Amino acid sequence: MAIRVLLVDDQPLLRTGFRMILEAEQDLAVVGEAGDGLQALDQVRALQPDVVLMDIRMPRMDGVEATRQITGPGRDGPAKVLVLTTFDLDEYVVEALRAGASGFLLKDAPANELVQAIRVVAAGEAMLAPSITRRLLDKYATHLPSGDEPVPDTLHTLTEREVEVLKLVARGLSNAEIAADLFVSETTVKTHVGHVLTKLGLRDRVQAAVYAYESGLVRPGAQ
């Protein structure tokens, strides 16, 4: 079964370019397009895509609010959101991640990265490039708590090793890098990550990274 993709961007030329790239792949199918967040909501309901490629800055409803309504609490649909950003200009990326986005991609990323990112998100993984998430969290540190707030009670449900894994996820390390750092197998790391997500009620690694910053477990700029 092909991965069903909805393209959401207010620039028709960009949507056309994305469509050409994705339709060249046998396992990807572009099922629709939208020029703003409101259209995206209608298209998601009508077309039931697997992945929504979502721009942030759009008229009528931006990508953050659209993401929140597509993936927020109580939403059990299959659609996952992959946010598009220009990085240097979009100060709302962290808010999109909080809203439920499964990851994000730079608009000038190579075609093969776009394709792979969609496949990764559709498979239930969170981010194509974890290091970019850390850069964004550091860049927008003013959006996040200082770390002086009390540690949430939910954090105490984690084992010592799970806390270690969460810190490394927040630093932007991949499963392979975490495995090497802790001298365990990648399978073990995946198990720990799964336990962390379940215990904290988080959707994916992206939200786990944001949680680690918001809870004060990891502070922006810390190594």
What does this structure look like?
This protein is an alpha/beta fold and 223 residues long. It is 47% helix and 13% strand. The protein contains ten helices and five strands; from the N terminus they run βαβαβαβαβαααααα. It has a five-stranded parallel beta sheet with strand order 2-1-3-4-5, with helices on both faces. Strand 4, helix 4 and strand 5 form a beta-alpha-beta unit. Helix 2 runs parallel beside helix 3. It is globular. It starts with a strand and ends in a 9-residue tail after the last helix. 40% of the residues are buried. The mean pLDDT is 82.
Q: What's the total count of β strands?
A: 5
Radius of gyration: 17 Å
Order of helices and strands: EHEHEHEHEHHHHHH
Helix content: 40-55%
The helix tally amounts to: 10
Distance between the termini: 42 Å
Strand content: 5-15%
| Biggest beta sheet summary | 5 strands, parallel
Structural class: alpha/beta
**Largest sheet strand order:** 2-1-3-4-5
Mean pLDDT: 82
Low-pLDDT sequence parts = none
Shape: globular
Brief overview:
The chain has 223 residues and is an alpha/beta fold.
Layout: helices, strands, pairs:
Layout: E1 3-8, H1 12-23, E2 28-34, H2 37-47, E3 51-55, H3 63-71, E4 80-85, H4 93-99, E5 103-106, H5 111-122, H6 130-139, H7 160-170, H8 175-182, H9 186-200, H10 205-214
Parallel strand pairs: 1-2, 1-3, 3-4, 4-5
Entry keywords:
13% strand, 5 strands, five-stranded parallel β-sheet, 223 residues, alpha/beta
